[in-house]
Design brief:
Elements: E1 7-14, H1 19-32, E2 37-44, H2 49-58, E3 64-70, H3 71-75, E4 108-112, E5 116-118, E6 135-139, E7 169-177, H4 178-184, H5 186-196, H6 204-213, E8 217-219, E9 226-227, E10 237-239, H7 254-264, H8 277-293
Parallel strand pairs: 1-2, 1-4, 2-3, 6-8, 9-10
Antiparallel strand pairs: 4-7, 5-10, 6-7
Helix pairs in contact: 1-7, 5-6
Protein name: Glycosyltransferase family 8 protein
GO molecular function, one term: glycosyltransferase activity
InterPro entries: Glyco_trans_8, Glycosyltrans_8_dom-fam, Nucleotide-diphossugar_trans
Length: 294
């Protein structure tokens, strides 16, 4: 039986380009995880005032409290490593800093990528027994192991003392044991790995988290992070990897695209128009410039 007397802490990181994705994600969480109080922390990487207001207006329950946090207040004076990959937003690194703002005494926090639709009740994850593990996550279905044959895992796994067959997590959903996270100093270790092993990095901070947390994470059922490149009955969370459903060139499951827009249309973005290739290209160039200039 799921307990409803807890206050659940959920974290997203988002820029203004991905706000429609975030809005749909929060709406899906609101509808499918009803029954518990939820504090949703949004690490704000340039979300406009109008978009923030629309997010607030889109909430249809008193069970959810939105809290916006400016990047400078979360990250402080720490420099986020730069990688020559304009397609990878720097916002992905912000999940490393959850310990800096979650209230003291909070036992666990759920980090979600903004390109996710929640179909199950996240309160179930508060029943998970961490044991001695630092985080709980889903094994990445495409990479699977650190020694992934096509090189997408942790290429220098042997240098780090791991085995080729050690499992590789997808960092889109992270259920974080805050006490263990802080004791192990995950943030510092992951940022150090980003600098020291930059030539080995694939997928930004996901590499860093796997390099630091290999064999220290609890495997969740794949239904909690189902990638939309194939359809699967019973998924509790859909992860819209690659081309997003807000883009004209989205090419994955039409069923999952329809599900996404079912939730988006329940928000202040119900009249949203798809983003074309040229607009995306301009955004990527701007993102690239931001990474270089800080």
């Amino acid at each position: 039986m799921i307990s409803t007397d807890r206050r659940l802490s959920v974290v997203y990181a988002c820029d203004n380009n991905f706000v429609p994705l975030l809005a749909a994600s929060i709406k899906s969480l609101e509808i499918n995880s009803a029954g518990s109080q939820k504090d949703i922390y949004i690490i704000d990487d340039g979300i406009s005032a109008s978009s923030k207001q629309k997010l607030i207006e889109s909430i249809g329950t008193a069970e959810i409290t939105l809290k916006f946090l400016l990047v400078k207040d979360v990250v402080g004076k720490i420099t986020i490593p730069y990688f020559n990959n304009a397609a990878l937003p720097v916002t992905t690194f912000f999940r490393l800093f959850v310990h800096t703002f979650i209230p003291e005494g909070t036992e666990r926090v759920l980090y979600l990528d903004s390109d996710m639709i929640v179909l199950g009740n996240i309160a179930e994850l508060w029943e998970v027994d961490f044991g001695d593990k630092i985080v709980a996550a889903v094994q990445d279905p495409g990479i699977k192991t650190l020694g992934c044959s096509w090189g997408g895992g942790v290429r220098n796994y042997a240098e780090l003392g791991y085995q080729s067959e050690d499992k590789y997590l997808n960092a889109g959903l992270l259920l974080i044991n805050l006490k263990k996270w802080n004791e192990f100093d995950v943030c510092t270790k992951a940022l150090d790995a980003a600098v020291k092993y930059q030539k080995h990095i694939v997928y930004g901070d996901q590499y860093c988290l796997n390099a630091v947390l290999a064999n220290r994470w609890l495997e969740l059922d794949p239904e909690w992070n189902h990638l939309v490149d194939n359809e699967k009955p019973g998924a509790k969370l859909l992860h819209y990897i690659g081309n997003k459903p807000i883009y004209t060139n989205y090419s994955y499951s039409q069923k999952y695209k329809d599900i996404f827009f079912d939730y988006l249309n329940k928000t202040a973005w119900k009249d949203f128009k798809l983003v074309g290739a040229l607009t995306r290209r301009v955004r990527m160039i701007k993102r690239f410039v931001r990474k270089i200039t800080g």
